[in-house]
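Co-fold these.
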Amino acid sequence: MTGGISYNFAYLDEQSKRSIRRAILKAVAIPGYQVPFPSREMPMPYGWGTGGVQVTASILGPHDVLKVIDQGADDTTNAVSIRQFFARTAGVRTTTDTGAASIIQTRHRLPEAPLAEGQIVVYQVPIPEPLRFLEPRESETRQMHALEDYGLMHVKLYEDIARHGHIATAYAYPVMVEDRYLMDPSPTPKFDNPKMHMSPALQLFGAGREQRIYALPPYTRVVSLDFDDHPFARTRFEKPCALCGARDSYLDEVIIDDAGGRMFVCSDTDYCEGRRAQAAAAGGAP
Amino acid sequence: MSGGEGALLTAAGLTKLYGARIGCMDVSLELHAGEVLAVVGESGSGKSTLLALLATQLRPTRGRIRYRMRDGVVRDLFALAEAERRFLLRTDWGFVHQDARLGLRMGVSAGGNVGERLMAVGWRNYGRIRGEALDWLTRVEIDGERIDDLPTTFSGGMRQRLQIAKNMVTAPRLVFMDEPTGGLDVSVQARLLDLMRGLVADHALAVVIVTHDLAVARLLSHRLLVMRHGRVIETGLTDQVLDDPREPYTQLLVSADLRG
Amino acid sequence: MYVAVKGGEAAITAAHELLARERRGDPSLPEISADQIREQLALAVNRVMCEGSLYDGDLAAQAIKQARGDLIEAIFLLRAYRATLPRLGYAAPVDTGAMRLRRRISATYKDLPGGQLLGPTFDYTHRLLDPSPPAAAPAAQRRPAAPAGEPVPQVTQLLDREGLIEANAGADGDGVGDLTRTPLAFPAGRDLRLQALARADEGFLLGLAYSTQRGYGRTHPFAAEIRMGEVEVEFVPEELGFAVPLGQITLTECEMVNQFQGSATQPPQFTRGYGLAFGHAERKAMAMALLDRALRSEELGQERTAPAQDPEFVLAHCDNVQATGFVEHLKLPHYVDFQAELALLRQLRAEWLAARGGDRQAAPASASDGAAQ
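Predicted complex below.
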């Protein structure tokens, strides 16, 4: 492009950052409520993380340590692209180590390692509205949130049980926040929902194209929707990770040959590598 | 301006104008628990407008409606907050539409339709919701086997009975009906009317029913409002008005009905 | 032995190098310049400026070159650039009545004050693909400027004088909204709707406008006027208190006259539809005017029956930068959520088969729903 353009720290101008931070503060004050914010065009396309990037850009400081993951992995192409973006425009330290990060921007997964106070998770959200596919009109869903009119969501769950015998939602599983707002936790697998409940970390959700920010302050009650007699069931894998042996992490299915042979490995690459490194160290101990 | 002792619903001077066109003009009425009021007239008489006003679907140009809430307090309906109004619509009131597609979710099973109000007011046990839905389906004479079927697979009469079940599940005290038997076979109509009579008697329902069919009015209602060009031209006990109409227009309606 | 996939960073670098090579194409051919694009592909440049919401022919031309001719990609580049620019304030409303006309036509009158001025138009060309189009007239005869004389009044003003057309709604007490400062919320005022339509995808608007002409929300339109030419842009700095000219821009304006409407307080009048685009862009301006009117259906007391009359539907989906981002985001990895779906599907299938007894295909051991933690 035209030479000589210099960008502000983390790309966004201070005005924009300020207006985004105002939206974040409102979101933190009303957990689970979707705050409209004026989304900026970013150098990556809408749908590719612009909401998360705007939130991260607005809270990033020169001493932050940033981790970016997509599908749980640090090395997927979009995570690489976003990490490079911040390295270039903010010059911050980046890391793949969950424990060492002060800000973790993520698409579709939560890290396996429990988070600590002082850490911030920034989720990339495509469709912030949990009722969107039941009611396409924004004017109507806004009313439903204002009036706590969530019957429609339970009807959907009822229908699932009537038709399939279970609730048929595997990801983006709707939750109630502090008994007030119905929230979409972003397309993380429902496996991750329990981690959001009473987390010591601050969780921020950015939807750039839909222009909404919402938040879960630390130690917020987040309850997955269910029925008393059909309680929320956490996904369990029948086999451990083929690489590190973990029994408590979310596993990716990898097809290894043309005959359809497959193996299951941790989706959280940092977690898996950490466990393997520990095992190797223990194995090599004198 | 308060209604008579114990009146459930009182309307005073209800008027709806569309520019110069009159939707309805200066309508006043009173309804008590367990009473069925029929609003009759030809198309264009303003009866559907009146119903929409009473059910707060439209705002009047002039006039007021007062309603005695479940806690006994009389409230001005158009002064209610939106949340209160919606809650009323979902619990204490029912609305049976002429076209069932307006009153049902066609993409949701019969059980889901009936259970919706319960879920909206906080029921969280699938088994109990389903049980209650099954109970009501039976009461409106829909085969329990159909609980998981979509209303698109139901006949016209069944859809109307499903609408009724959907409304009745929260024990409403007031039900609005807009030509509920319109477009149905005579025998299907008869069955539906029988059901409604039973429900009114068993649950002391107050009903405002709009119909152009005087036979329906005679069968279901205690009192009658005859409308023409947006105004009420005659009112009284159903049998009296139909057997001995005073207004020439009412006489015309009654005689046309007997002939047709 | 399976080794976890790495190397995303290297792959991206290689992809960008490949892209640069493809962009250049055959190196034995002369490289196209942004100036050539600006001058000789002006209508592409106009579209990019209009939907990029930034009036700068040079930058638009550069964007088209960088985007290898993909106009939506170029629009994206311009919008992203625009987002970094500091905002000084709002210009005074431009006076299209004072436009230096290079083209001006009306379908509602055979002749009218100011005349019918065809200008540079494809309208009456025969679409015969011609590899060597006729040479243009010598440079001296290019762009005859309209005589800087009396401004030519809009056709709608003529109708207005007779009271035959609804008055233009002025800005109400709240002032004019700014789509780039507040997210669109519904119901949206006409000011925000027009802003959204101005930067909307031309193809999307074209299709919807076409649908209104075929019965999906008919508005009985007539093209009262289409004018194209230069207008002055002025800015009133606070410190000076008077208007300072910033320069001229080319605009295309379309005013549609639509079916009449009366009420208790107003005799019947024609209703309006308005379209405005940067540069010479008639298709866009016309489609915009048709949709502006269609979106006013409810306000004008008409029943909403067609998609083109539904503001939420039209405005939520008309921005091609948003649209392409979300459609193309499906290329991003979704394997974690897919995995969750696979697990659920396998479980449902297993239960289905078990319920029917008999032949059970060994499903791969994967995930299942366990008791709640």
